Amino acid sequence: MKITLAKLLRGLALLCVLIAWAFLAHYGSTGEKHPDFSAALATVPLVAIVVMLLWRVGNPLWMVLGNVGVLGLLAWSWPYLRGNVALLYYVQHVGTNLALATLFGRSLIGQRQALVTQFALMAHQGIISPAQARYTRQVTIAWTAFFLLTAITSTVLFWLPLPNAWSIFANLLTMPLVALMFIVEHIARHFILAPEDRASIADTIRGYRATMHQSSKPLTKLP
Q1: 136: exposed, middle or buried (C-beta count within 10 Å: 0-12, 13-18, 19+)?
Q2: Is residue 222 part of a domain?
């Protein structure tokens, strides 16, 4: 995968946005920012997910009604939301990690194909070795455990309560921990897999994009 200057700049811009969002979320969770701003920042990802789900339905009427319903629900619940900003971020953090754990974990059930195995197949034109198949299944298990452990740790810290410790973990350390997980896995594959079976980070990204592109196609329109 060729990395152009435009792609590099987009990646750096996205990284800057994520870092800024993490610090704003941290200060909002600990009550150091205006509650309306912090609540609005916390609800943006949740609203974006709902909008994407409505878009996948593919029916304009459902999209309009759904968006109006979401806006109405936000307006009605805003006094409660602005007074419980930390809870908003907690629900968002735990919900995201549980959703990812489910996404990876459900692909391990029965005779299903492990999610990371799907990425590898997409990156290698549908052909991987038995060693790659075993390894990618183990990586899928590792990611499932990682997301579950993150959700459990977040819950323990939030309800103890340890608000500052929870906010540092959830808002500031989650992304570095995910990056560390990628690095550890990348190092592990060099010890476990033969040279001809090793995939590069670019191959992994390509396989992930191909798999997500297939899964993001609009659903059948509702009547």
Answers
A1: buried
A2: no
* Residue 209 three-state SS: helix
Quick: pLDDT tens for 174-222. Answer: 999 999 999 999 888 888 887 766 666 666 665 556 655 555 454 444 3
CA distances to 14, 56, 156 from 1, in Å: 19, 28, 41
Contact 96, 148 (CB under 8 A): no
Q: Which tokens is 16 given?
A: 């800057």
Query: Quick one: which of 18, 168, 174 has its CA closest to 95?
Result: 174
Is 64 part of any domain?
yes
Domain limits for position 145: 5-215
**pLDDT tens digits, 127-173:** 788 888 899 999 999 999 999 999 999 999 998 877 889 999 999 99
The amino acid occupying position 213 is H
Q: Which among 153, 149, 143, 147 has a CA at the least distance from the CA of 185?
A: 143
In a domain, 129, yes or no: yes
The whole model's pTM is what? Answer: 0.77
Three-class SS of residue 194?
coil
**26 and 172 Cβ atoms separated by less than 8 Å:** yes
Q: Which of 158, 151, 136 is nearest to 207 (CA)?
A: 136
In order of 22, 50, 81, the CA distances from 35 in angstroms are 16, 23, 9
Q: How far apart are CA 42 and CA 181, in angstroms?
A: 25
Q: Judge whether 223 lies within some domain.
A: no
